[in-house]
């Protein structure tokens, strides 16, 4: 049986691998100029610089997520990227794009939620704000 102390570590790895796998598999489409990717970024008025820039940012996020010391930074970067992706789907692209049944939107939401979980699990490692938050959460609540 697993020790209770292993659960957060295992959860962190599961969330990090999920987010990194999703981000990583989209890199091929962004960097090769796949028709679907070009279409999306053209609809957003960000082709080609947005597609390539987003791909580079997602590659950095993947690398940061896979290193334990920088998982919080990768999650923060991925959270920002996916907030932009979700907002783009809700305002310009639509949930389902090119008949994908909402797959890209669902993947963006999955990475966004995974990133939130990673940030929560690694909140004590985030410089300044994370330590303050972790300390505040550790304080006992006093009744007036």
What does this structure look like?
By secondary structure, the chain is mainly alpha-helical. It has one domain (9-136). It is 74% helix and 0% strand. The chain is built from six helices and no strands. Helix 1 (6-32) runs antiparallel to helix 5 (103-121) and helix 3 packs antiparallel against helix 4.
Please render the helix and strand layout as text.
Elements (H helix, E strand, L loop, with lengths): L5 H27 L2 H9 L5 H18 L4 H23 L9 H19 L7 H10 L6
Helix pairs in contact: 1-3, 1-5, 3-4, 4-5
Give me the strand/helix succession: HHHHHH
Secondary-structure content class = mainly alpha
Dominant shape:
elongated
Average predicted local confidence, pLDDT: 91
Largest β sheet strand count, sense and barrel closure: none
Question: What is Rg?
Answer: 17 Å
Count every beta strand, where a strand is a DSSP E run of 2 or more residues: 0
Low-confidence region ranges: none
Distance between the termini: 42 Å
- Could you tell me the strand content as a percent range? under 5%
Task: Work out the count of structural domains.
Answer: 1
Short description:
By secondary structure, the chain is mainly alpha-helical. Helix content is 74%, strand content 0%. It has one domain (9-136).
Q: What attributes does this structure have?
A:
mainly alpha, elongated
